[in-house]
Automatic annotation (TrEMBL):
The lineage of its organism: Eukaryota, Fungi, Dikarya, Basidiomycota, Ustilaginomycotina. InterPro entries: P-loop_NTPase (IPR027417), Rab (IPR050227), Small_GTP-bd (IPR005225), Small_GTPase (IPR001806). This is small monomeric GTPase. PANTHER family: RAS-RELATED PROTEIN RAB. It comes from Kalmanozyma brasiliensis (strain GHG001) (Yeast). One of its GO terms (molecular function) is GTP binding. Belongs to the small GTPase superfamily. Rab family. The keyword Disulfide bond does not apply. Transmembrane segments: none annotated.
Amino acid sequence: MSASNDVPTLKILLIGASSVGKSSLLLRFTDDEFLASEETTATIGVDYRIKGIEVGRKRFKLSIWDTAGQERFRTLTSSYYRGAQGVIIAYDVTQRDTFDALPTWFNELETFTTSDDVVKVVVGNKVDKELSRVVTTKEGEEFAEKMGCLFVECSAKKGVGVNGAFDELVNRIVSTPSLWQKTAPGERRPGDRMPGGVPAAHAADSSRGNISLTDREGVVGYGLGVARDNCNC
Ligand SMILES: Nc1nc2c(ncn2[C@@H]2O[C@H](COP(=O)(O)OP(=O)(O)OP(=O)(O)O)[C@@H](O)[C@H]2O)c(=O)[nH]1
């Protein structure tokens, strides 16, 4: 067994309406990049990336699942949720309907998550478009509070708040032992307990010189397809 297999894996899911910027949040977090509108495509099924992260001198592997917002591209939905320890529920602060749809996403989450302790972060994205904003910070905060969740506003475009959203999520997972001591199906159980609330640091993979890699085979292993579509409809 390779040393990397000793690093506990935390499974995180990105959900929310189409075009709120889930794929962009993931790309910003894993590669610190942002694609212009004409370069982005709707997610079909699920995309999947892994990133190393360090919390209180302990390394974790985040397997982050980026799901399709468009109903017609959502297949095997329950499989995405299986074993997830953290969920980011995203909306677009410039599109009221994506905020109004949040209760529907929470219903799906309640239906399919396999742990009552799953950590949730409500993320309002695209705060760089301040002039087009229609959902206030207060509305976002109040909704998250009502749902008992963390709340962060972000801009995947400008790189604002994105690392903070993932850090908050990971910190909360690490401080909830019932979650991370039972890893996702097929993954190793970590050997020791972490203190909660410690700052997360993004760990560079010294052998690769960067911090992320795409593991599409991992998705195939779960029986899920990965594809990108050029349709912006
Ligand atoms: N201005 C601005 N645009 C953004 C931001 N994040 C994403 N976008 C744009 O919003 C559009 C949709 O982004 P995606 O990341 O593909 O959205 P998605 O939620 O993954 O969409 P689906 O795959 O359909 O579920 C693209 O044109 C992005 O360039 C942001 O923070 N600010």
